[in-house]
Amino acid sequence: MTDLQMPKTSQPYWADSISLPEFSKLEESIKADVGIVGGGITGITAAYLLAKQNVKVVLLDADEILNGTTGHTTAKITAQHGLIYDELIQHFGPEKALQYYNAAEEAKKLIEQNVESLNIDCDYKKEDAILFTNSDSYITQLQNEKKAYDQLKIEHELKDNMPLNIPLKSALIMKNQAQFHPLKYLKVLAEESVKNGAQIYEQTVAVDIEYNKHPSIITKDGHRVTCNHVIAASHFPFYDKESFYFTRMYAERSYIIAVKSPKKYPGGMYINAEEPTRSIRTTNMNDEELWLIVGENHKTGQGKSTMIHYTGLLDFAKQKLGITDFVYRWSAQDLTTLDKLPYIGPVTKEEDNVLVATGFRKWGMTNGTIAAKILSDRILEKDNAYKELFSPARFQADPSIRKFARINADVAKHMVKGKLDNTKNSIDDLSADDATVTRINGKRTGVYKDQNNKIHMVDTTCTHLGCEVEWNSGERSWDCPCHGSRFSYTGEVIEGPAKRPLKKIEDQ
Ligand code: FES
Fold first, then answer.
1. Distances from the Cα of 161 to the Cα of 110, 130, 132, 264, 266, angstroms
2. Could you list the residue ranges forming a coiled coil in this record (predicted)?
3. How far apart are CA 288 and CA 311, in angstroms?
4. CA-nearest residue, atom 3 of ligand 1
5. Domain for residue 252, yes or no?
6. Is 467 touching ligand 1 by the criterion CB < 6 Å?
């Protein structure tokens, strides 16, 4: 096999295989019943559900719709969220563990109903989900997970071999799950929302909420959307009313490569239990199978050279699957909460008309869909069986507190480490499309030389709480190891909690 070239850009297959509608920027102050911030799966599904019930919806996206985490997903629609049910039973008890499963199942059904009722051509396909291990030390954990499935009466099978020829010792199969092309599905939901009266605005950055009698979303340009309810579905909540969501979640990056193999894919959506993560599914690209291999997770801003992670996946694919073409590569950022359950509900008790949905722990297709359902039910004054389970106000002391301490000790370590780092690399040695950190007038400075040899310099102090950002070569961004904020090489915010750009350093 000839050496495979790494694709130059990190464009996901999903966005490259569809054209999405474009929406203008918000240029005036307006009123709505519900203002939604974030055009991913949660925001668009909520807009669809609410607009269908004649609720006047305005949806704002800081960039283009479906260009955030939803556009970078693996798009598995499953209640099998890795090793989780045994842990949920231990932590919350069987009743709540079963509720979590039922919520994911309900999300799966809602997606399926939408696909059927709107006749959406989105490569929706039923597949089994397979959680496997090739590590002796994980066999017991897989057996415990099987016991949890037994206890919760989740239909499953435990096997020691599978049709996909990869090394595995044990596999736990959850039947009748599904996969799809997320953007083909959500494009139709967005269009249907607009047909039902929703207004969507792109390139409109929400920066704050003013809460008087009604909440008003304030945009970067100073416009406001005055409404009765706000849904913050912007991945990291753009507004947290000093409830410090960033101390209760951590951000992780993961990597996806899309390759072609001479082998025929035997079906199934695979994910392993151990590290490094290896998740595999296929999709149909022009009547050919495109294999998506996912994994190499690490905390944001704390990876090795990020290109190494793509190489890790490529080596795995070459050795275990045999591949002929390397077609796409991209990466995703996901947020995990202290107890692994998403936060879905009022941002605080006092401001209960501002609703958040975040912390989907890589399972955004089901968690994002159920979030949209829970929040729209709340707005429509309908009861929802899952509202307590996911309430951001919940407090389960034991594991949460230990993890809280761990996450925040890690933040403190990075805060100090970044400040002590006395790196002074030479800019002269920098090649095109590369970056380094140096000191200019004593100030830690991030320097990126673009493909036209133009230098871009930023102050590496994160504008959130002052940790030092690190270079992400795979995405050409500056990423913060503390709470996962990300900035373009010119310093613009790509991802919060930071709201302000990195300070630009002018040429010396
Ligand atoms: Fe919190 Fe950077 S994201 S300090």
1. 32, 11, 10, 17, 13
2. 101-159
3. 23
4. 483
5. no
6. yes
pLDDT value, residue 394: 79
Give the per-residue pLDDT at 9.
Answer: 83
Residues 403 and 391 occupy one common structural domain: no
First to last CA, the chain: 48
Is 482 close to ligand 1, i.e. is its CB under 6 Å away? yes
Q: Is 485 in the pocket of ligand 1 (CB under 6 A)?
A: yes
Final residue before a domain boundary, out of 375, 396, 417: 396
Residue 105 lies in a domain: no
What pLDDT is attached to residue 113?
Answer: 98
Name, in order, each residue with C-beta under 8 angstroms of 435's C-beta and a sequence gap of 6 or more: 446, 447, 448, 449, 471, 473, 476, 489
> Which ligand 1 atom lies nearest to the CA of residue 498?
3
Give the model's pLDDT for residue 85.
98
Residues 207 and 349 occupy one common structural domain? yes
Beta-carbon contacts of residue 28 (< 8 Å; ≥ 6 apart): 223
Q: Tell me the per-residue pLDDT of 148-187, one tens digit each, with 9 for 90 and over.
A: 999 999 999 999 999 998 999 999 999 999 999 999 999 9
Q: Do 492 and 356 belong to one domain?
A: no
Contact 299 CB / ligand 1 (< 6 Å): no
What parts of the chain have a pLDDT lower than 50?
A: 1-2, 396-398, 508
> What's the CA-to-centroid distance between 242 and ligand 1, angstroms?
15
Report yes or no on 255 lying in a domain: no
CATH code assigned at 50: 3.50.50.60
According to the model, what pLDDT value does residue 475 have? 86
Ligand 1 pocket test target in 465, 472, 478, 503 with most atoms within 8 Å of CB:
465
pTM: 0.89
Q: Reduce the DSSP state of residue 311 to 3 states and report it.
A: helix
Q: Which atom of ligand 1 is nearest to the CA of 467?
A: 4
What single-letter DSSP state applies at residue 380?
Answer: T
Residue 27 contacts residue 223 (beta carbons within 8 Å): yes
Q: Are residues 389 and 461 in the same domain?
A: no
| Domain around 376 | 13-73+183-247+340-396
Distance CA 204, CA 209 (A): 14
Residues 391 and 418 occupy one common structural domain: no
How many angstroms separate the alpha carbon of residue 243 from the centre of ligand 1?
Answer: 15
Residue 285 falls inside a structural domain: no
Confidence (pLDDT) at 398: 45
CATH number of the domain within which 500 lies: 2.102.10.10
- Residues 65 and 211 both lie in one domain: yes
> Residue 72 gets which letter from DSSP?
G
Atom of ligand 1 nearest to the CA of 481: 2
Query: How many structural domains is the chain composed of?
Result: 2
The predicted pLDDT at position 47 comes to 98
Q: Please give the pLDDT value at position 136.
A: 93
**Residues 493, 349 share a domain:** no
From the CA of 457, how far away is ligand 1's center (Å)?
19
Asked if 418 and 448 sit in the same domain, the reply is yes
Q: What is the pLDDT of residue 110?
A: 98
